[in-house]
Amino acid sequence: VQLQASGGGLVQAGGSLRLSCAASGRNFSTYVVGWFRQAPGKGREFVTSLSQTGSMRYYADFVKGRFTISRDNAKNTVYLQMSSLKPEDSAVYYCAAGRFIGGYSLMNKYDFWGQGTLVTVSS
What we know:
Radius of gyration: 13 Å
Strand content: over 45%
Helix content: under 10%
Number of helices: 0
């Protein structure tokens, strides 16, 4: 599976942005998908993940109520809708995919990673 993230950019605080992650390869619907982010000088952290069928969603506390993850398996695409953005949301956002059960926030569970897309939120 190859992943290509897009949709990043510059947005003002309080604004919205939608990230996309297009996947190539077979059986995309059998993969758990997730988004992680890495701010300058910091480690990569979990943002959100979504199960294969979309029935289970997990969010980091700092994005609950503001971000929504979704997927369209027919288009092999994962989305991250971000709203009420804050300057501290500025980071490179990475999409990831893997086949596993449990531990959805753990980076080492994910086998495939996109190249990242930069989100900058101005105050």
